[in-house]
Amino acid sequence: MDRLDSWKKTEERDLDLLCLLRGLCMQWKRIIACAAGFAVLFGAYGIYTARAGQAAAAMPGSSADAEGSLTKEQRQEVADAVTLAKETDRLEEYMEGSVWMKLDAFHKNGVVSLFSIEGATRRTLPKIVEAYVIFISNGGLADSLKKAGSKAADIDSRYLSELISVWQKSDGVYQVATDDAAGDVKAQTLLYVDVAGTDDTMAAGLAKDIQEALLNYAPKVEQQCGRHSFSLVSSKGNVRIDQSLQAQQRDKRAQLKSSRAELKAAVDALQKEQQVVFAQETGSDLEWEETGEQAGSSNVQKYILLGVLAGIFVYCGIYFFWYLFSDKIKNEKEFKMYYAIPFYGSIAIKKSLRESRGKENGVQNDNLPEMAQVLNRIRLVCMKKGMERLCLAAQFRLDSQERGCLEYMAGQLQAWGIDTSVEENMAGKVSAWEPPAQAGAVLLVCKVGATTYRMVDDGMEFFQESGIVVAGAAALEMV
Q: Residue 189's beta-bridge partner residues?
């Protein structure tokens, strides 16, 4: 060991990882502040890029430019996606507007009206029946109901036709059309018209309107197809379970779900230029603006999260390098590892705006136990070495709490017969070296996080050269 550096145990300072982690955890407020600052910066950049992207996408001619840059295969992919989007839109529109899809298949309300066609010949009867069937099935009846101001006039003709079904019975057999038979023999047939509604009131009202519409349509059929008599025989309401309706509703819902999933997968697979063309061809400007806003919001959130992580990483990195290259004494363990000077302990001083409350002679009451331990160790060393005068030498400027603490210690030591004085700023004031020299013995007082190794070394060199006995060291720590 070097004779001049006899107060040192080693020339190298080891890195205490546990102390490093503890110190880093105590910096949590600064870490949060740094993370918040980086989050704001990154979030602002994310908002800027998102708005810039939306502005670029909204520029006139951007869609044409994007379409011109597509290959033949890419244009075909867009065309397939557009077709699928239109089919999905039409299916969604149907599911939304169709009354048939909203009926309760387990409690289906309906009315069956029975009509009789008489007085026609076997030659003209098929044409007459088909005229009524076509009028009912192909939307003519629905249009007539809407023109007549029916209660179901607000329902689209396409959806109204779904609620009406028709069939006929001739010669005891249900069929759509009668046999083609020659002759003028008089014949008759029965025509059944079944109408469904969301409730019994709707079904009954619609059935009544249909009866009137068919009776009013009869003269036109007679004029076109031949003489006959068309009359209402009976009308009966019913409630039943319709399993075919249930199966149809399930199939449509499954088809819509499958179409949506397929469309989403197709659009997600498109590149940005393809998506621009797709948005224009489907006419979904508003939808794509919302999608762009959602995407921009997602990107901003990613930037914010990245900013938080970057802020934490940057602060931890700065703290690590500061800890690695800092010359300040960070804890008593580090002092003991580096110096051979007897160390009597640390005294924690709590930061408080109300310094006078809970103190005795400028010392907080909860500090007295650990201070008493340090004082007893100092007294025993002084008794053992016969030191009657002692200087508490601080290498830094003392604030009111720190000075009060050291003066309290000096008062206790004087009560035990040890003449004790307090000196501060030993490193920056030449006159401060005189009291230690007069006392002949010093207690080196350090401040964790403020006193540097250079200060301690300079002080020890002076004490050694001046023949001043260093009784040991103690530390003050602000918590």
A: 117
Helical H runs in 230-367? 243-268, 272-282, 285-325, 332-338
**Closest CA relative to residue 340, chosen from 10, 14, 16:** 10
DSSP assignment letter at 318: H
**Full strand arrangement of the beta sheet holding 229-240:** 173-175, 164-170, 186-197, 108-121, 229-240
| Token output for 461 | 């060199």
Point out which residues pair with 235 in neighbouring strands.
113
Tokens 């179901």 -> residue = 152
Residue in this structure with the two tokens 């040890």, named with its chain if needed: 418
Structure tokens at 227: 């003489």
CA 90 to chain centre: 33
Phi, psi of 363 (to 5 degrees): -120, 135
Does 204 have pLDDT greater than 70? yes
Which of 176, 188, 184 has the alpha carbon at shortest distance from 229?
A: 188
CB-based burial, 159-183: b 16+ in 10 Å, e otherwise: bbbbbbebebebeeeeeeebeeeee
Contacts 24+ apart (CB under 8 A), 314-322: 314/34, 314/38, 315/27, 315/30, 315/31, 315/34, 315/35, 316/24, 316/31, 319/23, 319/24, 319/27, 320/20, 320/24
Q: Which of 324, 268, 469, 444 lies closest to 388 in space, CA to CA?
A: 469
For residues 426 and 433, the answer to whether their CB atoms sit within 8 Å is yes
Residues 6+ apart with CB under 8 A from 178: 122, 125, 126, 129, 168, 170, 187, 189
Nearest to residue 26, comparing CAs of 476, 451, 448?
448
Whole-angstrom distance, CA of residue 15 vs CA of residue 160: 84
pTM of the model: 0.47
- For the stretch 141-163, pLDDT in tens is 888 888 887 777 788 888 888 88
pLDDT digits over 350-378, tens only?
765 344 444 444 455 556 677 888 888 88
Give φ, ψ of 378 to 5 degrees.
-65, -45
Distances in Å between the Cα of 328 and the Cα atoms of 324, 331, 346, 446 are 10, 9, 16, 10
Give the torsion through C-alpha atoms of 179, 182, 186, 189, to 10 deg. Answer: 10
